[in-house]
Automatic annotation (TrEMBL):
Protein name as it appears in the record: Neutral zinc metallopeptidase
Topology of the protein relative to the lipid bilayer: Single-pass membrane protein
Record keyword Iron-sulfur present: no
InterPro entries named among the record's database cross-references: Uncharacterised_pept_Zn_put
Places the protein is found: Membrane
Major localization listed first in the record, in broad terms: membrane
Transmembrane segments: 21-41
Organism encoding this protein: Kaistella pullorum
UniProt keyword list: Membrane, Transmembrane, Transmembrane helix
Amino acid sequence: MKWTNNRSGNVDDRRGSGGGGMLVGGGLGTMIIAAIVFFLGGDPSAILSGGGSMGPQTEQRDLTADELKVRAFVQMITFENERSWNQIFQENGMQYEPAKVVMFEQMTQSGCGTAQAAMGPFYCPADQTVYMDMSFFKELQQRFGAQVTEFSVAYVMAHEMGHHVQNLLGTLQKTDQLRRSGQYSESEMNRVSVATELQADFYAGLWAKYTDNREKILEPGDLEAAISAAEAVGDDNIQKRSQGYVNQEGFTHGSSAQRKEWFMKGYNTGDIRQGDTFNALLK
């Protein structure tokens, strides 16, 4: 992936700042974050199984040269998301408000409660912030067999920024109202969750298209790496690895094939109006 010279000031790097020792499990903040992780595409069991134990302590330290490079990369991707989405919103008669990005290690506080590395990257609507512990990408490669490159990281960030777009457009508020109404079964709400996640994948592909048109960031193999990351966290792949069989009613993210399909649809169409996963999947 080709780097640009642009950097965003909306990145808060909390790595090396010390901290830890916060209560994990059992509190209201934990329940809120677990619900959001589940709904936006994660496994809340890692959060809810904390049992009220104390989180690990992290000592204050200087960041390494590699960690500083990762920060620069995240700042770059954040800027390019801001620029592309500002353009997309303007083209559609809307005004974009940028999200913030927090980089952390082990755990930190978010507007949705305590954030842990085990949760993976997530978006918190309450403070309009993407939270990322970069150790997630090692797990993505080692545990789920994804091809992890710089553009894999860019795809994951663009997916979370896609949730921010959904928040700005009111999509997350509508889906949350459905969940809170209690009128729908677990399997029905899982389908809503799948549509939410696949739309974020579509938005990630749309971002890639706009950014590449402007900056020519894509190099050979980059799209394949993004697809590899998307497929690795498909529900069918995760279920096969964790339980040995596939249960479609339990899908909350979408299958590997669906995640590839909607990412590529965003990239190939370059049109935000083509990303209505809800009508496509919930008929």
